[in-house]
Amino acid sequence: MFCGIGPFVVPAAAMGCAVYANDLNPASVRWLRKNVAVNKVGRRVRVSNMCGRDFLRQLVASPGSAIAVAPADTPAAALPAAATEPPIEAPALVFGEFQHVLMNLPASGIEFLDAFVGAFDRRTWRGPLPRVHCYCFSKEADAQADVLRRAEAALGCALPDAEAHIVRDVAPSKLMLCASFVLPDAVAWRDGGGQSEAKRQRKGSE
Fold first, then answer.
1. Confidence (pLDDT) at 85
2. Can you tell me the distance from the alpha carbon of 90 to that of 100, in angstroms, rounded to the nearest whole number?
3. DSSP symbols for 55-114
4. Are 51 and 58 spatial neighbours (Cβ–Cβ below 8 Å)?
5. Among residues 117, 86, 100, 1, which one has the least CA distance to residue 50?
6. Interatomic CA distance for residues 11 and 34, integer angstroms
7. Is 103 left (phi over 0), alpha (psi -120 to 50) or beta?
8. DSSP string spanning 98-167?
9. Radius of gyration of the chain (CA)
10. What CA–CA distances, in Å, run from 107 to 2, 32, 33, 150, 176?
11. What phi, psi does 27 have (nearest 5°)?
12. How far apart, in Å, do the first and last CA atoms of the chain sit?
């Protein structure tokens, strides 16, 4: 959702993954498109330039007819030329449903988790709910417990199977971590009481 210039997008696409890439910053998106082109992975990347919340909502609400994704071992000659940059497009599930969401905005990514509440429609979403990987910072003594608590607060539900691993030190007494979890049924489904369930659990924790 916050892809920047593509430090995760390009390696994932090079390994054969189809990627929906989005960033709000036009300059980041400009360099993302160049990096995608230089690395010849344009057929596996769809680029958007908008607010992360709007991107997610539009993406899951706009199913498209899935197109074939070039496999990782596709000859370079069969892929777009290095000078060809992917266009900026409206979100659409042209590659089919996504299985992972990577939120690479450690300063405030957790604050965007509420965008997932009630975002998915059982009538149109054909795959399992995705696994979310949210990068974040913590200065707490128990940093892993801290980020999981904040993630639960943002979603308004418990995350019993969530994990948080330390990525690296960024400053004295400040860590970067990544919280990973499968999006819970309790809050994800639009027609399954996701929004009301999240509100109920938030009130119960106040």
1. 87
2. 19
3. HHHHHHH-B----PPPPTT--GGGSPPTT-PPPB----BTT---SEEEE--TTTGGGGGG
4. no
5. 1
6. 14
7. beta
8. -SEEEE--TTTGGGGGGGGTT-B-TTT--SPPPEEEEEEEE-SSSHHHHHHHHHHHHHTS--TT-EEEEE
9. 18
10. 11, 20, 24, 13, 9
11. -65, -40
12. 29
Locate 8 and state its tokens.
């995760």
pLDDT of residue 192: 58
User: Is the model's pLDDT at 123 over the cut of 60?
Assistant: yes
Any idea how long the chain is?
A: 206
Q: Are 150 and 139 in contact (CB under 8 A)?
A: no
pLDDT tens sequence across 125-159: 989 999 999 999 999 999 999 999 999 999 999 99
Q: Is the sign of the CA dihedral 183, 178, 37, 47 positive or negative?
A: positive
CB within 8 Å of 93: residues ≥ 6 apart: 20, 59, 60, 62, 63, 64, 66
Instruction: Specify the pTM.
Output: 0.84
Phi/psi-derived region of residue 68, left when phi > 0, alpha when psi is between -120 and 50, beta in every other case? beta
Alpha-carbon gap, residue 203 to 206, rounded angstroms: 5
User: Residue 173, Cβ neighbours under 10 Å: how many?
Assistant: 11
pLDDT of 79 above 50? no
Q: Is the pLDDT of residue 15 over 90?
A: yes
Split at pLDDT 50, 70, 90, the class of 84 is confident
